[in-house]
Amino acid sequence: MLIRVVLALGDRELQRGLEEQIGLAEIEVEGLTGEADSWRQVVRSCADVIVISDSMIPAPVAGGIGLLAGLPENPTIMVLQTEHSAELQAGYIAAGAHSSLYSGISRERMIKALEGTIESRRLAMMRDRLDRRGRSVPKISDFTTNSEVMQLFMNEVQLVAPSDSVLMIMGETGVGKEHLAKVIHGESPRASGPFVAVNTAALPEQLLESELFGHKQGAFTGATRSRRGAFEQAHGGTIFLDEIGEMPLHLQAKLLRVLQEYEIQPIGAEKSSWVDVRVIAATNKDLEQEVNSGNFRKDLYYRLSVIKLNIPPLRMRREDIPHLARRFVMDFKCKIGRDIRQIAEPAMAALCSYEWPGNIRELMNVIERSMLLSRSGEITMENLPSAFLYATDKNVDEPVNGNLAGNWQAKTLQHVVSLMVEHTEKEYLCRVLAEHGGSIRKTADHAGITTRSLYSKMRRYDLRKEDFKKRKR
What we know:
The protein has 473 residues and is an alpha/beta fold. Helix content is 44%, strand content 13%. The protein is built from 19 helices and 16 strands. The strands form 5 sheets. The chain has a 5-stranded parallel β-sheet, with helices on both faces. Strands 7-8-11-6-12 form a 5-stranded parallel β-sheet. The model is unreliable at 131-136 and 393-398 (pLDDT under 50).
């Protein structure tokens, strides 16, 4: 992880010596010696470690140290005393300094003390991040599935998770793109580093650049303090860029530079900084179409698409709905304080028949709502939204003779296409099962799928092999 060190010393020679010794790849050093407004810049520097001469702190010195200790970054403070006094040292530490040293000690001792201070800060930052993760950190087991299409997808995820390659996660709204990104981060060698998520569609264009790359104090009106961007915060870990298709074109160019050079330049900064991050982007847009429309850079699209992962929508893996629904019931029991233990069979059938345009997020919301409305120990049809009263009617949206009957006008093109695909798949399986007298092995061989996949599809479409034995030719 990147440690930002600010030096505000009265001795220029000492300043240069320390910069040469500690200016490593994982440490960014900024020297403020000799500048008229050095104190103001220290306060606004958003540093992790501040090394400052007591002569640079306005009187009363103890009050100035307390001000630094109370900054939002909670910086580690090392004070260099101009006088060799144990009383001063005790006073500075009592005021909030991490350590206080006499500036006249040898260069070697000072460098060793500073290196120890930086390492202490690094360990503290790592400990904080691990504590914040706790037990709620996403795991690969969250995606346990009975669906063959999802199993194939997760096999692909497990192959790419340990790498450092740029990933593009695609999928409809609510399928769990950010959750998957956290899982990939947790399964990678960067798991002990930070995971920083930025929704590029949620911020105004003027703020997004600062959010991503940071800014220096005075870079624009209102920039009263320097600010770290998300890329710097994610140093040593993973940055997740959600809704990447909404990013403005001029920021796409800056993002491309980061992906190629691994350098960022905060707004108002004179030099670039190196960052070590893995980039995972996500979108529910067709980026190829956005490229053709001129809304997305072609070179950035190719750079982001090194590996593309397309999460299957929930309606394409209905086998997982019962397991997910029961898991959410257990998750919400403590949150909402309701002792709901099960889902009634008719309600579960309705959940499995619904199209789920909002995917996993919608399922979570429906389960939470139903638990709040339930007056018994189970979720019943009465507790589900009105849309589910029609979900069990197999004929409402059933395609007939190649046309869609029912309320197809209320659906999106994507949902209509999905219904047609499902109808065609069911009709095909019925014909092949009839052709082979209900033989699972022969039907699977004919269809070019595994017997496991065939059983899964038969459960999905409520097909039984016994119903086809009498049709054997």
